Amino acid sequence: MLWVDDWAIVAAHLFSIAFSVCNIMSVKHGFGNHTWEVPKPERIQALKWSLIVQVIYKIVISLTKVAILLLYLRLFSVQKVFRWLCYALIALTVLSGIAYTPLTIWQCSPVQAFWDRSIPHQCIGNQHWRLSYSVINIGTDFLILFLPIQRIFCLQLERRDKIALIFIFSLGAFVCIISVIRVTTIRRVGKRKDPLWNTFPLGLWSVVEVNTGIVCACMPMIRQSLSVLFPKLFSRNRTRPSGRSLSKSASHRSYGLTNGGSTMPTAAICWTKHEEENIYMASIKPGRESPIFRTESEERIIGPENADPNDMRIFQRTEISIIDSSRA
Q1: Pick from 231, 257, 283: which residue ends a domain?
Q2: Co-location of 153 and 297 in the same domain
Q3: Which of 167 and 282 is assigned the larger pLDDT?
Q4: Which one, 149, 208, 209, 245, has the greatest CB density within 10 A?
Q5: Do 122 and 250 share a domain, yes or no?
Q6: Pair 221, 314 in one domain
Q7: Where is the Rhodopsin domain (predicted)?
Q8: 324 near 257, Cβ under 8 Å?
Q9: How far apart are CA 289 and CA 327, in angstroms?
């Protein structure tokens, strides 16, 4: 079943394909060469594709960040403050994309003046508004990177799970570094004497940023696919220090802990061990605890009191409680 964040990242990926195609077309027509070395018809085509690239870039960046934040809401929506921070970042990302996309299209009036400066025109300074958008972009990158750290490191994870998380966050930090490097190339864009050459580094780092961001957004979910291809390496049925492992029902069954009608995935469950009975118990931490009790029908099903009095077998009764602290 695809969730909203899945659809958002699929849309981002489709736009990233269009982004790459438009970059290829601009390079085909001379983007990356010195402007005076490219014939005017080719130069016009290269600049047309370059304008399309700038528009698609903002769409891809916005969709990727929204997809990551929606994933956070699905996995870590335990505290009200965390949810509101995610909503605020989603609003900031969407509004900045809406504000700067028309500004990109109509940075010159008429629009044709972007690729043909020989006609009468008026253009705004590229350097200042590109820099302002990049500052917002970098700020949201770092906020998205550090937002879930506290939630993730409260989980009781094994070493290889922690290594996987460190790798994911390292990739996210790499995206932030790319965004910073990209800002350093904006100063060259304002030099209009050689636009095909001066804007090439900016376009190059934009391609790296867009595609690395999509890979980073997909990393938390890639384990499910890898567990099918490499079950021994990525299976959740692991041996614990006591020599016991989770039972098949605990490690492979899909549990649905509900919170106001929304299902909490198994990734949000911390497994802890009950020392006296060597039983692994599931709980959701941290938060206000509210126990979930068995129903009367469940007592009749699993309780030994309904057993046949003539049955001489020995019954062992085990109490397992599930703590639901997902209510903020």
Answers
A1: 231
A2: no
A3: 167
A4: 209
A5: no
A6: no
A7: 2-226
A8: yes
A9: 8
pTM, two decimals, is 0.68
Do residues 151 and 280 share a domain?
Answer: no
Q: Calculate the alpha carbon distances from 137 to 127, 141, 189, 212, 246 in Å.
A: 15, 6, 18, 15, 43
Give the structural domain span for 263: 238-323
15 pLDDT exceeds 90? yes
- The tokens describing 128, both together, are 């200042």
Same domain as 163, residue 252:
no
- Verify that 71 and 191 share a domain, yes or no: yes
Query: CA angle at residue 306 from 302 to 307, to 5 degrees?
Result: 95
Q: Tell me the C-alpha distance between 324 and 294, whole Å.
A: 13
Q: Name, in order, each residue with C-beta under 8 angstroms of 148's C-beta and a sequence gap of 6 or more.
A: 72, 75, 76
Domains: count for the chain = 2
Measured CA to CA, the distance from residue 17 to residue 210 in angstroms comes to 10
Helices (H) and strands (E) in the chain, counts: 13, 8
Sign of CA dihedral 49, 52, 54, 59: negative
List of residues 6+ apart from 59 with CB closer than 8 A: 15, 97, 101
Note whether residue 267 is domain-resident.
yes
Q: Beta strand 279-283 with 270-274: parallel, antiparallel or unpaired?
A: antiparallel
Same-domain pairing of 79 and 208: yes
Residues 22 and 145 in one domain: yes
In terms of Cβ atoms closer than 10 Å to its own Cβ (0-12, 13-18, 19+), residue 33 is middle
Of 40, 54, 10, 47, whose CA–CA distance to 26 is shortest?
47
- The residue-averaged pLDDT of 112-132 equals 84
